[in-house]
Amino acid sequence: MTEMNTAPQLAPRERCTGCAACCNGCPKGAIRMVPDREGFLYPQVTDGCVQCGHCTHICPVLKQREPRTEPAAFIVWNGDEAVRRNSTAGGAFSALAEYVLEGGGVVFGAAFDEALHVEHIGAFDESELSGMRGSKYVQSDAADAIGNAVSLLKRDIPVLFSGTPCQISGLMAALGGTKTDKLLTVDFVCHGVPSPGVFASYLAELEKERGSRVRAYAFRDKRLGWKNFSVVATFENGETHTGTQTTDPYLYGFLQNLYLRPSCHECGQLRGKRHAADITLADLWGAETI
Predict the structure, then answer these.
(1) Which of 73, 89, 199, 224 is the one with CA 20 to 30 A from 245?
(2) What's the pLDDT score for residue 26?
(3) Cα distances (Å, whole numbers) of residue 257 to 60, 64, 195, 208
């Protein structure tokens, strides 16, 4: 009598972060990441599954990290004013990235592609860093980048990987939880990741209103200052759309948690002392009083 085939145990849908650890860690390549109707990526098991259980074993949601000791805190800003101007906060990521690139490494971070989808890309020199600067309030697709980072590390090539706390946990899971001195991980204090589908619909509405394609978008433009969250959409016809956290519908909805990934609403296993990253970045609110 043959044993009945059963699907592997993956994280419950409401807790799945889309980190793609299961996809990258599957020895048979039997898991792929598929978008749902909101554009969020979820694992889908294919017929190639042999029920080895590796995906269940490495899932960061199913296998919680132990709390780390209280980290040291530093106040940092980049000495290059142009870099600070084009960064969300103080430009610390750029300084770390330049350090890794100078050592012959590769830097991974979130950037817009030509269609204004947000995905993780790799930078091999400083000229490729500009697209990674600045916050992107959309969940990025990091599945391929995690796989590429793992391949580079196996060849002893230094890597800086920047992403959300759950993406860093996904990378570490894909590495089998083994830390190497060739890897520097950077996450940030995360508000949650909004729906790629909602963002695409929002851009389509803007393009319909203006009769022109959006060619560039900034979520935290500083022309109104650092504190007043501002967005700027630049159209191919030269026009711009600007808005703030109270006047722009997408930014307002994000800050009101209207279309975050379901797992973001119960993210306790990845917050605070459970961050897996070497360095966690955040805005220094109240900097003017220090």
Answers:
(1) 73
(2) 92
(3) 23, 25, 11, 25
